[in-house]
Amino acid sequence: MIIFFHNLNFKQAMNKNQVEDIYTLSPMQEGMLFHMLAQPDSEAYFEQVSCDFEGEINLPGFQQAWQEIVDRYAVFRTSFHWDGLDKPVQVVHKTAVLPWETLDWSTLDQTKIAEKFESLLRDDRRRGFNHEQAPLMRCVLISTGKKSWKFIWSHHHMLMDGWCSGIILDELFKRYKAHITQKSVTFPGNPSFKNYISWLAKQDHEKAKAFWSNELAGFDTPTPLGIGNAVLTDKNNTNHGYAECTYDLSPDLSGSILEWTKKEGVTTNILLQGYGQYCLVFTAGKMKLFLDQQFLAGRLNYPVWNQ
User: Per the count of CB atoms within 10 A, which of 139, 174, 213, 302 is most buried?
Assistant: First the structure.
């Protein structure tokens, strides 16, 4: 894959001693970058994982485990560049230091902690990421008591999909355990994302276009919700036409759902989206619907491109 750079500022900004590789973006990444540049204040594609920890935390070991994750996976050392280039590219840096923030709220009461935490989450999302600065990821650890903590892991969706989060967290805690027990741990080799990009470039795009044109033939109007007034298209409606609704599932039902999704090899999210689409069939009055959802999330067998 040959990439030509005509932007002098880009070439000057790239220190060749710090660059490991440069290649183009996947179509999905290009779409996300487009939205990021078109709406810089948008929180779309900003991924944020938060949780509570109980017990002692070896902070140096925890931070080191995270840094090893960044060192191991090229995408966590990647920045994205567009201005003045023929095509957007992603630059893999040889090193990238994961930004960390540690806070001490241990003297605050639970009400105040909850308020500050919600504010911190909101401010973190609004802060976003500079797509030209690797890594597009950061962590915050907050002490809320003698042995209680809150943790925030934020990253941009251009780096990975939701399936990867579990893989990364599983490896993270294995690395952390190895640090605190002073035992070595090894991991299998990880697939090269560059190989996937190269595989994409070799695909017959005209053939793919013809396939999807045929599959989507007949879809020329938006799917109606069929639930009364179309408030989603009413610009004068200050409520934006949507709201949040919370429903608590019983432990038994939750367990049954998780057991079923594990057996079928799908996520809980896919199950719930399928249920929503089943309901939409009745409200919209149509048996054939088009919904923009990503069900496979790239989790097909990958030996074809991982060569």
Answer: 139
pTM above 0.85, yes or no: no
Give DSSP secondary structure letters for 157-208.
TTS--HHHHHHHHHHHHHHHHHHHHT-----PPPPPHHHHHHHHHTS-HHHH
Asked whether residue 231 is domain-assigned, the answer is yes
Name the residue with tokens 């809150």. Answer: 150
Same domain (yes/no): 187, 271: no
Q: Answer yes or no: is 226 within a domain.
A: yes
Q: In what order do the strands lie in the sheet with 89-93?
A: 19-24, 89-93, 78-81
CA distances from 273 to 91, 254, 279 (A): 35, 16, 10
Same domain, 225 and 171: no
87/193 same-domain check: yes
Which structural domain range is residue 147 located in?
8-197
